[in-house]
Amino acid sequence: MGRNSEQLQTAGRGDDQRGDYIQLSLFPESPQEQADYGTAAGDTPAAVFEFPDSYIDECLRTGGNNQDSLEYILFDLVQENPSELLTGDLKKMWVGGKGLAMSDGVKVSVWYSEDGISFHRGNGARKNPEKTISWVEAAERIESLYQNGQFTTKELQEKAFDTIRTRIAEYVFFFYRDSRLESRWGSVYIEAVEKITGELRDPIGVNTIYEELLSFEKRVDFETGWQKRNFETAKEHLKKLNQAFIPVSQNGTEPVHIAFITADEIDKLLQEGGIVQGGKSRILSFYQQDPVPDAKTAIAFLKEEYGTGGHSASISGAFHSDEWHDARGFLLKKGNIQKNLTWKEAEKRIRTLIENKEYPYSQQQENIETENKQTKNKERERENVPNFGTQESKPDELLFQIDFSEHDVISPYDREKGDFTVRKMSFAVANKLFTVLDKQEMEKQENEEEGYSYYKTAFSIYAVIDSEEYSFKGRYDIGSEGKSLLEHIREYYDYCLSSDCMYRQYWEQDGVLDEKIEQITKYSENFLPYLEEHTDLTPAEQKQLDGLMQKEEPQALQDKKYEMLILEE
């Protein structure tokens, strides 16, 4: 963490360190660009000719949006009856859409749906595609390209099966670890995965590991869902690897790359209604007022509803994609592509989706009143946060406390007691407050050319989720994080679950590694989403935040930046 943390870029600027993304305006501006690119989802294509088969093949050769997509396609292609296997896997794994630039410069939108794959020259393929092929036809086309050696490059094919073996090795390792079984490869993640991957390069090794795994199927009590999934996935992949045929040599060209984020993908993102629970219903209810609010009022409402935040894998579920929204609008990233969406543009698209009955209607419309009542009850609970330490059985709750901070806005110094004041606030206020103060300090250092400095802040979180208690104690360094409090906590859990985590060796020495990993995984799957649901500010919380932000830090406290005792997270 610190000054080298990744920073979000503002409109019109790139990453100073790499400068490798492509930034596109939301809509084409010149008449020529509109003709070449298409102005909106469903527009008449630029060319009136039939959609070329070569474009379809090029789109198929790029794979889906999920990680290792092409590698898993090649894995299916070396099985018996590959078309049948591919049909099911493509339909299940390829979701969302993508925007590609063909080798001749023509931009093509792709959309994956229940019926198959839709294509359109220009921006958007979902509403009025030029061409739609079924999943069966897609699988047959891919197999034909593969048999002719034109589906992918020689380099990708050579790396594909090493990638698959590594993924299988990971599933095998996690199965042994979660089942508390003694592994002949050891319990250190990197070393074990490397050994298993090596054995999987030999057909005898593949069969041996497969038989060993099968022997545990009836003897192991699967205590958790992910334990069962690791076993089933490892078993399925080992069976496929054991039955794989010799691959057909590939000499195809490099697949085309993603060139833009499509209108379909943006609409799909906006249809989700933000990251706060119940957002879709509140937005839909707002636009169903009579009379319908004007654009200015709607923009103000959407800003408040969405707040500040974002999430990863948000554009068509792509692994290397994320979305961020704040007072300026949306920042969307997918691979090296970046797109900015203003609130004016977002409001217009949401209004159009609702008018065209394309906003999630059925379930949300039936439950609007129920969800609104539940939301109001939650807001009242959050405005009247109870004390820590209540141990009796109670409904879901979330409590946040500042234990210590060098920043006077958060935890003022009591001169009489000679100590810092403990402060309680909601998680929503803390998440927003930490983000704003961190950004202010980082900008101050850049503008005034101050040296590296930060304010150490220790905090505690207590939550009850489905009658289970969760707690977290950590430290956030205001002025060096470059991320929200929620992102800080998520990064900590991701690090603990990674093979690079330095704590693993100590947990292993203490004999608690499996217990720790299971606990952290549980927190990552339950506690983090719960925190994410509670980042939206109520009016009372916004008032509290505004009051805190009006405070000025005394010079005496600024001088203590480097003198305070460091609290380890």
Summarize the structure.
The protein has 569 residues and is of the alpha+beta class. It has helices spanning 31-37, 53-60, 69-77, 82-93, 135-147, 154-178, 189-199, 203-215, 225-243, 263-271, 279-287, 295-306, 343-355, 362-383, 427-448, 485-497, 503-509, 513-533, 539-549, 555-558, and strands spanning 22-24, 97-101, 107-112, 117-121, 131-133, 258-260, 309-312, 321-326, 329-334, 337-342, 397-405, 413-414, 419-420, 423-425, 455-465, 468-478.
Model description:
The protein has helices spanning 31-37, 53-60, 69-77, 82-93, 135-147, 154-178, 189-199, 203-215, 225-243, 263-271, 279-287, 295-306, 343-355, 362-383, 427-448, 485-497, 503-509, 513-533, 539-549, 555-558; strands at residues 22-24, 97-101, 107-112, 117-121, 131-133, 258-260, 309-312, 321-326, 329-334, 337-342, 397-405, 413-414, 419-420, 423-425, 455-465, 468-478. It has 569 residues and is an alpha+beta fold. The protein folds into four domains: 38-152, no CATH class; 155-243, no CATH class; 262-374, no CATH class; 385-558, no CATH class. The strands form four sheets. The chain has a five-stranded mixed β-sheet with strand order 1-10-9-8-7. Helix 15 packs parallel to helix 19 (539-549). The protein is globular, with a radius of gyration of 26 Å. It comes from Anaerobutyricum hallii. This is Large polyvalent protein associated domain-containing protein.
